[in-house]
Amino acid sequence: MSPVSASIADANGRGFYCSRPWRYGTLAVKGWGPAKMIPVETTSSIRLRKTETASDPVLDEVLLGLTKTRKELPCKLFYDERGSVLFEQICTLDEYYLTRTEIAIMEQNASELAELMGPRCVLLEYGSGSSTKTRILLDHLHEPVAYIPIDYAAEQLQRSAAAIAASYPALRVLPLHADYTQRVGVPPLVGAGARRVGFFPGSTVGNFRLTEAVHFLRRVRGAVGPRGGLLIGADLKKDPAVLHRAYNDAAGVTAEFNRNILAHINRRFDADFRLDKFAHRAFYNERLGRIEMHLISQEDQRVRLQDLEIAFRAGEGVLTEVSYKYSVEQFRTLASRAGFEVQRVWVDASRLFSVQYLLAC
Ligand code: AVJ
Hints:
This protein is an alpha/beta fold and about 350 residues long. The chain has helices spanning about 55-65, 80-90, 95-110, 110-115, 130-140, 155-165, 210-225, 240-245, 255-270, 330-335; strands at about 5-10, 15-20, 20-25, 25-30, 35-40, 50, 120-125, 145-150, 170-175, 175, 195-200, 230-235, 280-285, 290-295, 300-305, 310, 315-325, 340-345, 355-360. The longest helix is centred in the C-terminal third of the chain and has 17 residues, at about 255-270.
């Protein structure tokens, strides 16, 4: 089955595009078919609710992950409303060098970036979140045609898209509510013939295992097309002590962010995880070159999830996130396996983080 294409747009052509059946207010958009434009008055009046009838692929992922011998959860479930707030807070922590370093690199090289991305591009952002870094690009790009933010957190997506649309009136903003770890149907694109450039900041690419990263980048490669590009942030390998601190902050925000995944699952899938019975654990796995975040069960316990009961032994962990760290060389290999050539790499003076511009080849 091909992904459903349905989109809602306001009178200004701003819209909300979704790749799965969702319900907008009283209006149900479901079924599989070609793109549909349904006029609504304002973008902000759109309210999203999952249709009751649709089976939820994310629930399947959760069930699969928790019934494995080594339990795991998909890290996209961090980002409910609360999780998005906690993540924004993480980004401001002293220990979490990633965000400020990436922003500094982008700001210092913004003109060159805009030059490489070229005039009148269509910008597709994967995991747009608060769209903060996007503004650095939009402030320097030459007459960008459209901005397509793609995110899984619907409310934040809607808010950020509206804010960007308000700040850049000439820009067409087409938010796409989708899980980009799956196949995403990219809307029939505005600005036909325009160069498409992907934007995937934050080192979120590190959340994929190697083969998944290749598959994801290939899909991006497909979405941006032959002359397309990809601006991507990749965290670099470094002293493990620095990494350890970044994922074990003194204020405990990361711990709360990690545990919040359970609150999200409780609410969304009717489960009864007790947050105080799970402890945050994050460490650098040197052999695999990645940070791992786990939630460690503090006692023998049983958790109910829908009609399942899941047993946890004391000390047993659930893997909630992996965050791969790349050398510039490793990342070049990854990019080339996905059909991209690294055209330019910027790093900060301490070589903590890299921002890279990839060209489809
Ligand atoms: C935004 C997914 C890249 O892995 O560093 C922050 C998320 N996890 N602290 C990362 C995160 C724990 C972050 N990414």
